Amino acid sequence: MLRNVELFVLDMDGTIHIDGEIFPWTLPFLNRIRDLGKKYVFLTNNSSKGPEDYEEDLKKMGIQDPKVYTSGEATAFYIKEKFGNIRVFILGTRKLVRVFERSGLIFDEDNPEVLVLGYDTEITYEKIRKFAIFLRKGLPYISTHPDLNCPSKEGLIPDAGSFIALFKASTGREPEKIVGKPNPQMLYSLSEKYSTPVEKIAVIGDRLYTDMKLAKNSGAASVLVLSGETSREDLERSDLVPDVVVNNLGDLIGVI
């Protein structure tokens, strides 16, 4: 089935690297895709950085001319399309704020019209306090992605989904919209951008509830790698069955 794939959409954390340390099988796999005349793009739910930051990181890992699309970009695009150039309070990093500002949205910590929850690796209690107060005022509430954990060298660490759970416990509210994976719109956008039908796309990632669900929701092929968050025990307990399951990207080199 993977021999018919023209575009490989790759997750990053836990799939091609862990905490910035590239897996030894990543470059051989990407070289194989290029040798076959096929394409790849990196799609990440991690909204703590902008696409240019990720692309620079990937270049340092030895990846040639990487293209990255983030849930932060997708969220800024969604808000601008739905609301226009409005004021947003973002629970996120300074780099995520810049992604929104570049799109024409206005960062406002005092009088926002929309609330955005991202993966904030610079989080403080003051940010949590302000975000909770705005939530209780009933402002529209959007999250960049639902991932509970982010892989790291030391193990799994809390991601945006864990922050969502925190605010639900405190305020009773959940996001009205979660833009990132598994929302199929992210893949439809890439399908259009790369002029590749969804049935010719394979999503490769390490999470069942985002990467694999994205593929299933959109009709793309799904490839689960066990080099990140998901274990074989998780897979056995899941109702979601990927099309292909491998230990890592290296196992795919001979079958694409």
What secondary-structure arrangement, pairings included, does this model have?
Elements: E1 7-10, E2 17-18, E3 21-22, H1 26-35, E4 39-44, H2 51-60, E5 68-70, H3 71-83, E6 87-91, H4 94-102, E7 106-107, E8 114-117, H5 125-136, E9 141-143, E10 149-150, E11 157-158, H6 160-171, E12 177-178, H7 185-193, E13 201-205, H8 208-218, E14 221-225, H9 232-237, E15 244-246
- The CATH class of the largest domain is identified as Alpha Beta
Helices, by number, come to 9
Please state how the strands of the largest beta sheet are arranged side by side: 5-4-1-13-14-15
The fourth-level CATH homologous superfamily of the largest domain is HAD superfamily/HAD-like
Q: What's the domain count? A: 2
Mean pLDDT: 95
Strand tally is 15
Separation, N- and C-terminal Cα atoms = 8 Å
The biggest sheet, with number of strands, parallel, antiparallel or mixed sense and barrel status, is: 6 strands, parallel
Please state the overall shape, judged from the principal axes of the Cα atoms: globular
What fold name stands as the CATH topology of the largest domain? Answer: Rossmann fold
Strand content: 15-25%
Estimate percent helicity.
25-40%
CATH architecture descriptor text of the largest domain: 3-Layer(aba) Sandwich
What structural class do the secondary elements suggest? alpha/beta
Poorly predicted segments: none
Topology pattern, helix = H, strand = E: EEEHEHEHEHEEHEEEHEHEHEHE
Computed over alpha carbons, the radius of gyration is 18 Å
